[in-house]
Amino acid sequence: MLEAVSGTSRQLLVLEPIGACEALLPLLQDAGWSLRRCTAETLVTATSHVLLLDLHEQPLPSLLAHLRRTGLCCVALAASQAAASSELDELAHEWLFAVLSLPVDVPGLLETLQQAQAGARLLRSKSKKPRQFLGNSGQARSLRKQLDEQGRRDGPLLIRGPRGSGKHLLAQLLHERTASAQRRMLQVDVTQLPGGLFDQDGHSAILAAAASTTILLEGITTLSSADQQYLLHHLQGHPGLRLLVISGDELEVALQAKHFREDLYRLLSARQLHTPALSEHPGDLLMLAEHFARRHGVAIGRHHRRFSEEAIEAMMAHAWPGNVRELRNRLLRALVLSQGRQILASDLGLEAPQATDDDPVTLEDYILRAERQALNDVLGRYTHNMSQAARTLGVSRPTFYRLLHKHRLR
User: Fold this and answer.
1) What order of strands is seen across the sheet that includes strand 215-218?
2) Residues 402, 410: Cα–Cα separation, whole Å
3) Could you please report the per-residue DSSP string of 329-379?
4) Under CATH, domain 138-274 is a member of which superfamily?
5) Which of 39, 163, 259, 326 has the greatest number of C-beta atoms within 10 Å?
6) Cα end-to-end distance, the chain, whole Å
7) Which candidate, 163, 368, 154, places its Cα nearest to that of 249?
8) What is the per-residue pLDDT across 321-335, written as a single tens digit (0 to 9) for each?
9) Is the pLDDT of residue 187 over 70?
10) Pick from 172, 173, 188: nearest CA to 220
């Protein structure tokens, strides 16, 4: 089912230290893979798009930081006990294409790498439409309005929200609304700066670049006391600095623990945007799933696949701790793995909810379910054109809005 990629060049990055991968390299070369060793520092400039690594050799925090910047399709090897850990479970569902337990089954590894090559093509596929924060919920519409308002203003801004909820997308959308949108936004992970953000004289070459573009800072709670003081003074002297700071709840935790300056926190948080957890706007879930399936499916010759009823139920029942990032990663895998015309719950790595007495048993129950599916289909297709969505369903706009409220999709 992977004919669309079987004839392409098989290029594979192997992340050092390679550990358990070492013994596999001759077998992979015999199978036709062109191998290239790389370090975490050289991943950013990688031209290959499939990555093999031994998780035992990689510290997870720094690995996450590198994966976030590269967008590579990753296959990881892990000891069987590690593969069952909750920490690795989070990593796998949000960032990795597959995790294989050691000792690895070589035919299974070769098949997985071929599937990952298809996944890499999906990751490289670009939409011709401009990026946007999608959703028809009140939270999504409010956030888009705030984006337009805040994008016209200079000065520091704090972007908060749970992991995988779209903070980096929001930062990019803000940058695209500035006068320096034609220049690339400079993303800086403070945890990856061995010398800190400032030199001994209190000068920062990174912040100096903010004169011509937007600066995005991550990991700001790891700043030393001296760097926090330097940053405070720098911002006080440059109130129009286009500085975006991304944080989950770690900034407040550091503040309460007296590890972060309160005056610096007040300055950074004077302007804020918050990305909601997917559980806070569940009405957008199926629309987002349809969007990812439609956008990426074309890249491997798998035009828009519909979701089975079981898959829809499984998605609606899942807690989505990794939010939209987890949804997208599961969808990418499902598009590669699905064998039929529909995406199944098993393709998504989800279990369908057990049948209960509340499952549809009457004609009215099935009509309601069909209504909801139809609404999600047109919402995914016409995200910002409610008139066209209503016309597609053959109903008036007032009727369309009543249906949205009826099914809690607004």
Assistant:
1) 186-189, 215-218, 243-247, 157-160, 272-274
2) 10
3) HHHHHHHHH--SSEE-TTTTT-PPPPP-TTS--SHHHHHHHHHHHHHHHHH
4) P-loop containing nucleotide triphosphate hydrolases (3.40.50.300)
5) 326
6) 38
7) 163
8) 999 999 999 999 999
9) yes
10) 188
